[in-house]
Amino acid sequence: MYKLLNHWYKLSLVKRIIIGLIIGIILGVTMPDAAQPITIFGALFVGALKAIAPMLVFFLVASAISQHKKGQQTNMKSVIVLYLLGTFSAALVAVVASFIFPVTLTLGAGAEDVTAPGGVVEVLKALLLNVVDNPVKALYNANYIGILSWALMLGFTLKNAAASTKLMLSNVSDALTEMVRIVIAFAPLGIMGLVFDVIATSGIGVLLGYGKLLAVLIGCMLFVALIINPLIVYIYIRSNPFPLVFRCLRESGITAFFTRSSAANIPVNMTLCDDLGLDRDTYSVSIPLGATINMAGAAVTISVLTLAAVNTLGIPVDFGTAFILSILAAVSACGASGVAGGSLLLIPLAASLFGIPNDVAMQIVGVGFIIGVLQDSFETALNSSTDVLFTATAEFAKRRKEGIKA
Question: What's the whole-number average pLDDT of the chain?
Fold first, then answer.
């Protein structure tokens, strides 16, 4: 038994996760009822990540800001530009793909019990109110905009504090980082439970009726992940982008795919940034910020499903209006975290651009909930892995300009 465990821990974490993934698929297909207890592993894994992430972000950001030396440069401006560029590019890809492969749907009842925001102003207002949320409430509800704002304020006010106070903050953030590593070591069991739960409870059959819609959605996200993002990265770092792209997809995207939670993936992303040797002052802020505003996957979902509604109702759309939709989808996606329900509930907002009634748009939201098993998984994997990708890209580009080998 000891030898078996020794061999197991000698494998890389990614290989162990893949083994857990395969076991989960086999059990989900062959014994969905008998193996039901293993779903607890998935629930525990996601619960632990979600529990530790708010505290990790708060102390990492506060510690990094309090110890930041005057004149020391970070890459936050470049990272934010990359986030916005990536989100808009994804929305544009989705609009073009929807023109090339138009999708129509059979509308039915669904999503009657949820309320969509009334406009972009409402989305942005919710986002701004989250900035000044009660700090304890922000930590409890995992409101990362609020957590970031209060952590930044605490960090700035502690800049002139005693060295012992800063050391305490640093020690707490280091301890939380180590706790995250312990939780991530259980990722193979967690992924096994999560993938089993998806296959055993939802199956694949329920998704077959929406094959074309899923093909366009997933195709757009894969195109962004494997073509658009590598192109953006190459423009910045001027070297082969695919090793970095594939590493981010492998080490961040896989866990995000199965947890379906950007918040739960924050600790995974911070560990990956540390492994890549990135500047802690930058990634301690850019990763939680990315989980809030870097929403390429959400921009794809909003654009594709909105244009599906447009095609279903036979509404003519010119390219100018579609381009405006790209901008609206990108802005809405950046504010998705300020709305309960995420990207799907922002579809009526985008649909209003074409005069689509709210009750019809909410039926499209209902379709989104049905295909959410795959749509949300791919969306989260793209969103979360891109947080690390663009943070690393900004830093590697800076090193290239300074003549430092990345």
Answer: 81
Looking up tokens 């590493």 gives 247
pTM of the model: 0.77
Which of 378, 374, 380, 352 minimizes the C-alpha distance to 364? 352
Q: How far apart are the C-alpha atoms of 304 and 318, rounded to whole Å?
A: 15
Chain centroid offset of residue 262 CA: 4
Model confidence pLDDT, tens digit, residues 378-390: 998 999 999 999 9
User: What is the C-alpha R_g of the chain?
Assistant: 21
pLDDT-above-70 percentage for the chain: 85
